[in-house]
Amino acid sequence: MDGKRITELFLARDERAITEAMEAYGAYCRRIALNVLGDERDAEECVLDALHAAWRSIPPNEPERLGAYLSRLTRNLALNRYAAMTAEKRAKCGASIPLSELGDVVSNTDDPLEAAQERELAAAINGFLASLPREKRDVFVSRYWHFDDLKEIARRTGRTENNTAVMLMRLRGKLKKYLEERGFII
Amino acid sequence: MTSLRFAAVIGEIDDNYTESAVKKTVGLRTKRILAAAACFFAAGLVAFGLIQAKVFKHERKLDMTVSIPEDAVLPPAIENRPAASYASYGTAYSVEKAFRKADAVCLLTVKNFITEDFYCSYFAASVDRVYKGELPESIVLAQWLATSQIMLENSPRYTYGDKLLLFLDPSISQTFPGAYDRVGGDISFFYAAPSSDGEIYLFDHKGLFSYNTYSCKDDEHPFNVRNRSSIQLVSDFCNYYSAFDKPIADRLNEYYEACVGHETASFALHIYSLEDMEGYFSQLD
User: How far is CA B232 from the centre of its chain?
Assistant: First the structure.
């Protein structure tokens, strides 16, 4: 069943929406959650939480692309769960590697005032991604949105792992410079 | 901002980008085969000067051609034996320790000789690639214990055209307060050179950097960069440096002469691919 039809089930409060969404998007969402959390059971729970969050939010939301909506919910819930597990020192490998790479771009200090600039920051990151050739953009998004590991990205793009790692290192440098030129101090 | 928070902000990017990254699996190999075939065809057309095609993009390659301008300022030749000479100096760093210790790590090309004081020679250098820290396009590079008064054995003074991978800290020299000097002295850096097939390699001219790296047991990331020593590569480097840096070319020729006819001998000259080394750097924080 396609995303539009499943969204109509959500809007009609038909409980088949959840099973259909799980069938259509469950594997994709599970992969994102597993990349972050590193544990099958935690990932499965996270996907179920995302579907229930979708049930509570559609309506009033009416996403144009249900797959993107569910994957975003899953990613945010997974990161929240990861943050809680890290605080409790229970985190497994999961997203720790790409997060430490992002330390190249940010200062890693906590400043509540920065929350105010997050919307602008997201727009700036979109601008940066728009400036990239498609292949490099896909590699960046695979690593830092989907948290795919280097081996998987290299296999998908036909590059070596070394080459992929070097590409990502340069992209992080370019992103940092791009954001600094636009006045972001992060 | 923490990395976790930044990762959450990245989550807000355009859905088109997130979906595009997922769609790449099916059909990519077919697209690459077609792109390679189109590139081959386009290359033929370019040869006849009919079109300039850009079928798929390459990363910008390092320019390894050496062109010494007529007005290049070379370091003066050392006519008499210096007042003092030493075998070597520097701390026994591994590659990882040198990387972490350095303020900046880069690949650069030595340009004009500027001056020397009692301890130090100074050169202008253009920065080609930066792997750590931030550097301007041009820096002043200090080379300690490479002067007419003091020198190190088998550590030639740099000259115009030398391509070096260096681990740098601000120099303690008073002559040029903003200059950069090597972390770990004359044993912890690499010369770079192209092979005859165009790939770029690094060589550890004294072998001690490699020895210290292999000996080090407490690094977080094992040094898994393969030693690619071969007679052919030593010959390639010798030919490359013979055009502009005779002392290094002579040292390379000594290695070459020692190895000809002894292909199974383990080479004292440790050689690494630049791409492999860049991949190793990307693992280090």
Answer: 19
